[in-house]
Design goal:
Strand order of the largest sheet: 3-4-2-1-5-6-7-8
Distance between the termini: 12 Å
Oligomer: single chain
Low-confidence stretches: none
Strand content: 15-25%
CATH topology of the largest domain: Rossmann fold
Order of helices and strands: EHEEEHEHEHHEHEHEHEHEHEHHEHEHHH
Mean pLDDT: 93
Shape: globular
Number of domains: 2
CATH class of the largest domain: Alpha Beta
CATH architecture of the largest domain: 3-Layer(aba) Sandwich
Structural class: alpha/beta
Number of strands: 14
Largest sheet: 8 strands, mixed
Length: about 400
């Protein structure tokens, strides 16, 4: 079977972003299928292709995946209008490919929501099977965050969401809340599969070269946040906790923020103005380099803005990277991940917008390394038993390619 796969932000492990689509495409190939990946040029990604673009694209093969990379450069620092233009441009080229390319089945994954447009075209104009993977609930999340307020835009997005779900023969949800959201739009449960992000055990639990950034001593408790520095991530909560720790004189705890994003300059400026030298900033790193950092860390930080839509409606890559590396997780919002951390005793869950509780948790971690190590072992066990990427990918392939 030939699967035409759309993911605007596709990257291989050589990039500094989530590799779910790469791993799933490789799983399809292992099962004897062919994959053509259609993507844009993502600032933190690496498609494996080099050389100039010709007529707006370049093509080649990466690890057995045929890649069509469009000359649409996206960055987490882009503004709303540029993002919207890039999303619509990618969707328009995608619709043309859906109409003209040779393939057996079309698979599209968000974000953005406009990724569903090629699938709608494939289903209704060519009669091709379409599978839609939903990583975030749109327009619920941008509406809840206040990013989009125009009722006309929200109405159009809601219509596109409904049309994408109802056009797809099957849907893939990355979290329980996303599965519930799809069902609320009238999709029967037997057409929805829950396949969360997984743990790349071969990368994060294998032999690596541990390292710590400059400014972190060997005996410091190193708490790592790895990911986008944007509005959704709520990293002011980390800064607030750092300020509390500073006021308490805890010079043995370092908060390391790895990555990039639109709000990173503001966070750097705040750290400088408030003298928060216990916060260390570092640029994005690829998966192998990240594995070395996590091998040297003591706890992973899972942080999001306090928005109820996030509680059960997200499946953050960083959480699965942390537990794959055997790191306990400090989580600052309620929901399915907080419940899992508590049930498996693999970290600490604190209430949102409570800097004192956040700082208390870090102090407990620093003062009780025996408990922290036990929680790390529990995290590794959770990763192996529930979220092994290979096992999840095999089930995902069966769902995507089944009759």
């Amino acid at each position: 079977m030939h699967v035409l796969y759309f993911h605007q932000h596709f990257t291989t492990p050589r990039g500094a972003a989530g590799t779910r689509s790469y791993e799933m495409a490789r799983a399809l190939i292992r099962k004897g299928h062919r994959v053509t990946m259609v993507c844009g040029s993502y600032g933190l990604g690496q498609t494996g292709l080099e050389g100039p673009f010709r007529r707006g694209r370049r093509e080649g093969t990466t690890d057995g995946i045929r890649v069509i990379e469009l000359d649409l450069s996206y960055s987490n620092r882009d503004g709303f209008l540029r993002r919207s233009w890039l999303f619509l441009r990618f969707a328009s080229v995608g619709m043309m490919l859906a109409l003209t390319a040779r393939y057996d089945r079309l698979f599209a994954t968000t974000t953005p929501l406009t990724a569903g447009l090629p699938g709608i075209v494939a289903r209704w104009l060519r009669g091709k099977p379409f599978i839609f993977e939903v990583r975030d609930l749109w327009p619920e999340l941008p509406k809840a965050m206040g990013l989009i307020r125009n009722p006309v835009v929200l109405g159009l997005m809601s219509l596109l969401e409904w049309a994408s779900y109802r056009s797809a023969q099957r849907c893939v949800a990355l979290s329980p809340g996303i599965a519930d959201g799809i069902a609320r739009r009238g999709v029967s449960r037997d057409r929805i599969a829950l396949t969360p992000n997984g743990c790349d055990l071969g990368i994060f639990s294998g032999p690596v070269a541990p390292w710590r950034p400059d400014g972190v001593r060997d005996d410091d408790l190193m708490a790592v946040f790895s990911g986008t520095h944007g509005m959704a991530n709520g990293l002011d909560a980390v800064m607030d906790a750092a300020a509390v720790l500073k006021s308490r004189g805890r010079d043995d705890i370092r908060l390391v923020l790895i990555g990039d994003g639109k709000l990173k300059p503001q966070l750097v400026d705040r750290a400088a103005s408030e003298g928060l030298d216990n916060v260390i900033f570092h640029g994005p790193v690829d998966k192998v380099r990240l594995a070395g950092l996590l091998a040297s860390a003591d706890i992973g930080v899972q942080c999001l803005a306090n928005i109820p839509a996030f509680y059960y409606g997200t499946s953050p890559n960083k959480f699965f990277d942390y537990i794959a590396a055997g790191l306990p997780v400090l989580n600052n919002y309620p929901g399915w991940l907080a419940d899992m951390i508590t049930a498996w005793d693999c970290g600490l869950a604190v209430p949102p917008e409570n800097a004192g509780a956040f700082a208390d948790a870090l102090e407990r971690a620093a003062d009780d390394r025996v408990t922290l190590q036990r929680q790390g072992r529990n995290a590794a066990m959770l990763a192996r038993k529930e979220f092994d990427r290979t096992a999840l990918a095999d089930a995902w392939v069966d769902w995507v390619t089944g009759d």
